Amino acid sequence: MSEKKVYTCFCTDIIHEGHLNIINKAKELGSVTVGVLCDSEMVRYNRFPQKTVEEKIEMIKAIPGVDNVIVQNHIMYDEVVKELRPDYIVHGNNWSSPAMAVIKENILSLLSEYGGELVEVPYSYNEKIQKIDRQMSEKLAMPEFRRGRLKKLLKMVPIVKTIEVHSGITGLIAEKTIVANGEHIDQFDAMWISSLCDSTAKGKPDIELVDMTSRFRTIDDVMEVTTKPIIFDGDTGGLTEHFVYTVRSLERMGVSAIIIEDKTGLKKNSLFGTEVKQTQDSIEHFSEKIRAGKNAQLSEDFMIIARIESLILEQGMEDALTRAKAFVEAGADGIMIHSRKKDPAEICEFCDKFREFNKETPIVVVPSSFNTITEDELAAHGVNIVIYANQLTRAAFPAMKSVAEDILKYHRAAEVDSRLLPIKEIISLIDEL
Ligand code: SPV
Ligand code: MG
To answer: Which protein residue's CA is at the shortest distance from atom 10 of ligand 1?
Structure first.
């Protein structure tokens, strides 16, 4: 009788006794193939790779009992099961999260097609393993590692999904929100410290009034409870003489990128467009600011992204493209193009035309107004980073306002209770050390 085929997939950078238990069980059943989940899928799964796929293959090959190592290209097992047709898939019995439940369903349905079997191994999450997990997560949060994560992501995923955060609690939402349906598992890749939302949270207008010390305090609050990379909204960058200090501070904190916009004088929010007086900076002056920032920067991985306001200020597509070319020449590591039109056509046109002469420089967009375009469509036009710049703030505000109104109306809180997070959930929302 030929040896049975056994498959298990690892989504890890380090091997601990939990993994060895799985291998031992697998070995009892037959010839063991281990899948290494590829980087782009590992990211979707709430793990950020700290080793290359090649390093992980070597690490797993060296485990006694492993006969073969392959790369698994999707979180779902369809491809691998079709190719390998394993008699057994061995997996820890840690299915309690929605993401894991979806994976279990996927495995069971595939195996049922030909009589394969899922073998569950009791999940060992002892103190030693918990400590290893905590150390891995701590490493991700360290400035050196976090800062480099954005550049790595740009190489790993088709589009970097970024959500606005302005506090510890919104940071936790960006860090932990994960959706799982029949086909995929998804989560945000990065966080945006918006000037609009940071100012709004403080009850201030978005006119560069909230000073850098306060903005840095927001970053610190977010960093304390998250590991994902941060893109900082640097408004105009201020005076060039000040901007160089901002760059150094952000780098040191572990921020991955600053986006500065080519406006000068009193900055108003772009979504006002031409309804308020706003002045665009000259190409020469703004290029000088970018150059100065790049010269000040000490690490390789920090990015200065130039934001072009030509479409917002109705200066035309040619002006936007001329500026993009000039700002890249000045050293910008990325271009953000903004629009307040509902129709994404001008954004798509800019991206297509920019990509005609520049294939490499990352493009960033903020689809607040042109919000019908999907991430896949943006990626098809060459966009690399999408920022959902204000949706969390805009979601929270009406919810808070209507609850406040109803408490006043009913002279008690009973009527609003069904709209609130249960007390038990709010007190257990935040992990304690
Ligand atoms: C922000 O979020 O502060 C931005 C994007 O700068 S926008 O509000 O669209 O100008
Ligand atoms: Mg802003």
So the answer is: 270
Q: 124 pLDDT exceeds 80? A: no
Tell me what the pLDDT averaged over the chain comes to: 95
Per-residue pLDDT at 144 exceeds 90: yes
Q: Which residues are catalytic?
A: 206
Distances, alpha carbon 66 to alpha carbons 8, 39, 149, 323, in Å: 10, 21, 31, 55
Residue that the structure tokens 């782009």 belong to: 40
The yes-or-no answer to whether 5-130 and 142-389 have a common fold is no
Nearest CA to ligand 1 atom 5: 389
pTM over the 0.85 mark: yes
Question: Kindly report the CA angle at 147 between 145 and 149, in degrees rounded to 5?
Answer: 70
* Nearest ligand, measured from the Cα of 235: 2
pLDDT at residue 1 in the model: 62
Which of helix, strand or coil describes residue 68? strand
Q: Where are the domains of the chain?
A: 5-130, 142-389, 395-427
CA 44 / ligand 2 centre spacing (Å): 27
Which ligand lies nearest to the CA atom of residue 269 in the structure? 1
What tokens were used for 50? 């700290």
CATH superfamily of 142-389: Phosphoenolpyruvate-binding domains (3.20.20.60)
Tokens, residue 39: 């980087």
402 in Cβ contact with 373 (< 8 Å): no
Q: How many helices (H) and strands (E) does the chain have?
A: 17, 17
Fold of 5-130: Rossmann fold (3.40.50)
